[in-house]
Amino acid sequence: MSSNVTLKHIAEALGVSAMTVSRALNNRSNVDARTKRRILEKARSMGYTPNHVAKSLVSSKTYTIGVVIPEITHAFFPEVVRGIEEEVYTSEYQLFLTNSNEQFSREKDAIRALLSKRVDGILISSSQTEEDFEFYKELVQSDTKIVFFDRCIEGIGASCVSVNDRESSRQITSHLVEVHNYSRIAYLSGPQNVSIGRKRLEGFLKALNEHEVRIRNEWIVEAGFREEEGFRAMKKLLETTAGERPEAVVTINDPCAIGAMRAIEEAGLSVPEDMAIVGFTDDIRAPLLKVPLTTVHQPAYEVGKKAACKLIHTIEDENEAVENLEVPTTLKIRASCGCMRS
Amino acid sequence: MSSNVTLKHIAEALGVSAMTVSRALNNRSNVDARTKRRILEKARSMGYTPNHVAKSLVSSKTYTIGVVIPEITHAFFPEVVRGIEEEVYTSEYQLFLTNSNEQFSREKDAIRALLSKRVDGILISSSQTEEDFEFYKELVQSDTKIVFFDRCIEGIGASCVSVNDRESSRQITSHLVEVHNYSRIAYLSGPQNVSIGRKRLEGFLKALNEHEVRIRNEWIVEAGFREEEGFRAMKKLLETTAGERPEAVVTINDPCAIGAMRAIEEAGLSVPEDMAIVGFTDDIRAPLLKVPLTTVHQPAYEVGKKAACKLIHTIEDENEAVENLEVPTTLKIRASCGCMRS
DNA sequence: TTGTAGGCGTTATCAC
DNA sequence: GTGATAACGCCTACAA
Asked: How does pLDDT run across A303-320, given as a tens digit for each residue?
């Protein structure tokens, strides 16, 4: 497939050496202007396409970045990818996209494959669990250039780009207490072996503590990042709390909240009258729902752009600092929390 | 970055030749079981990662596929990408993802870069215009393995995977006429230099002709694939039809319809009472809208999977036939057309 | 079963 | 300004 014309072919056709052709094609100074023109002309007419595989072998640089995301259909990630795309496009890198489908084994497979393809660096939003911490530690120690985004693993020597999950979660929870005076608040959590799962829960608990609202462990249900998981967790919560229902529910993210809203509706209850609910992400669907979702807006595009930018700097400059970058969130107050009640 | 351990290093450490190491690592039969075990052991302890760049140079096969999509944030495409991902994951290929951002110049840049990286084949959803037809013709003639999906260029010798756009468009338009008896129907079209832009418009016109409904050229407004374009086109349509408004509007796709609905709302009109509207895609948001959108469901995941499958066959078998594959659509009847009126 | 030679397409280096 | 040579890491083909 594609051009099998090589430097040598052009060289032979013109009676010069491959080296001269290489120099001409790469705009080196020390080539006679006339020969250069002849070479460029011939290269075009023969349909020459430079072979980056060979270039990479010599330079051990591929101008390629691997991206590992857990779920391409969660609307947050395509937006992140667009940010990454935009950044690498201007820097002439290309993207290997891999989808771990929330499975750590696939994540590891993907990374190993990327390493074999000798990518210059990797952007990762991990679906990792505690146990697998070691894997990334070794990766960083072997001098692999890595930047985490959104779902980070901190303290192992790699940079991270994310939002302030703990604080944002605290804020949106506080909104429920301060503005709406809810005191019976439940939580649909993410997996506790994922950093944002822990941090968002911590923020939730912190808010309750600050306002001296009672924390009930049986009202903290592990759901997950996906709509179906939110749906199931909410069903479970409704069953176990038939007597005394929560007034409000905080969720790990928007897909989870959307699933939960479906469960609430199916139970014949209404949002926010019977139960208020808030999310996290600001999914593309959030403002369009029958009851628009109050949530934390994460600037996905910015996260992607910043992460890609940081990675490229890390690749191109040995001395680039390792740091945790944060992009600011904003609260999106809509109807599902009880504001704007009609 | 990453392992700089090579076959030679392992060979030296063990006092064997690089060739023996290569054979052991690639599971060839002709290696002594004991030496093999020693080599595998050593490779692991030294942290060897095979260098696919070098492999590719030898085999001129990269196990890499390029994907060119026009807009990663249009919800249809991430779903397609997931389908592609799933297919290539099982076939051990990896994906270069590129986003043309609906610009043909970026699309060409992307393809040239992919060609230089010597991808084994390319999946394309084109943002092409008539003039640029030549580009793809040459690509196919140079024996580049290509499969188009969704936005296809037919008749140039490359396979296509798409839905039956003309027929689906005819069906949803017929629904408006047959079920709802609308006779004043407008159309927000896609670009006419893109195949699906033309085909969907043809289907619309065919339906009107079949039912002897009057076609008014001034009610066919070129919008585009994006929400903002739908919004603007609808505003324009509302201005120019102040006297006699259309009863219903057919749109090129869901984002366009969603933008148009916003324009309708801002004009103080309501859907479907003042104006019915239908889309095409079945965007993730379609069922969640305040007035759920009647639309054509395109099985995006299937499209991706089928296209990737076809491409891999085309890559691996010289004799794989060139064909136009169609995946069936279904009509999603919701409220925006006037059905299920409350 | 194992090793040697040569080459994939490109570039760095040194010589002319 | 241009060319020969070696090297990047691996594999095919042939030899031992």
From this structure: 999 999 999 999 999 899
For residue B55, give how far its alpha carbon lies from the nearest alpha carbon of chain A (Å).
Answer: 10
What is the β-pairing status of strands B220-222 and B185-189? parallel
Q: Is B40 helix (H, G, I), strand (E, B) or coil?
A: helix
Q: Which of B1, B52, B89 sits opposite A116 (nearest CB)?
A: B52
How many interface pairs between A and B have CB atoms less than 8 angstroms apart?
A: 138
Nucleotide C8's nearest residue (CA vs C1') is B58
Residue of B1, B4, B45, B60 to mutate, testing the A interface (most A Cβ within 10 Å of its Cβ): B1
Residue in chain A nearest B139 by alpha carbon = A2
**Token reading at B124:** 């394309």
Beta-carbon contacts of residue A71 (< 8 Å; ≥ 6 apart):
A77, A99, A101, A102, A225, A226
For residues A108 and A117, give the distance between their C-alpha atoms in angstroms, rounded to a whole number. Answer: 14
A330-332/A295-297 β-pairing:
antiparallel
Token pair, residue A213, equals 């609202």
Cα separation, B39 vs A202, in Å, equals 48
What are A65-110's pLDDT values in tens digits?
A: 999 999 988 889 999 999 999 999 999 999 999 999 989 999 999 9
Specify the amino acid at residue B334: R
3-state secondary structure of B14: helix
Overall residue count recorded for chain B in this entry: 342
Q: Is the CB of A284 under 7 A from strand C?
A: no
* DSSP state letters, A163-212: --HHHHHHHHHHHHHHTT----EEEEE--TTSHHHHHHHHHHHHHHHHTT
The pLDDT of residue B130: 63
Per-position DSSP letters for A35-70, written without gaps between them? HHHHHHHHHHHHT----HHHHHHHHS---EEEEEES
Classify burial at B100, counting beta carbons within 10 Å of its beta carbon; exposed 0-12, middle 13-18, buried 19 or more. buried
Polymer length in residues for chain A: 342
pLDDT along chain B (342 residues), means of 10: 82 95 93 94 95 96 96 91 94 94 92 96 86 85 95 92 97 98 97 91 98 96 95 96 91 97 96 97 92 97 97 95 96 95 59
SS (H, E, C) A121-163: EEEECCCCCHHHHHHHHHHHHCCCCEEEECCCCCCCCCEEEEC
Instruction: Report phi then psi at A143, rounded to 5.
Output: 70, 25
Q: Which nucleotide is nearest to B53 (CA to C1')?
A: D9
The A 4-63 residues near strand C by Cβ under 7 Å are: 4, 6-8, 18-19, 22, 25-26, 50-51, 54-55, 57-59
Q: Is A1 close to B144, i.e. CB distance below 8 A?
A: yes
Task: Determine the Cα–Cα distance for residues A111 and B61; give it in Å rounded to an integer.
Answer: 20
pTM for the whole thing?
A: 0.91
Q: Which residues in chain B (238-297) have CB-CB distances under 8 A to chain A?
A: 258, 284-285, 288-290
Window B:51-110, CB contacts with A under 8 Å: 51-54, 56-57, 62, 64, 67, 72-73, 75, 77-79, 81-82, 85, 89, 94-99, 106
Q: How confident is the model at residue A218 (pLDDT cuts 50, 70, 90)?
A: very high
Task: Give A189's strand partners.
Answer: A222
The structure tokens listed for A228 are 């179906």
A314 — contact with chain B (CB < 8 Å)?
Answer: no
* Of the partner residues B79, B89, B116, the one whose CB lies closest to the CB of residue A73: B79
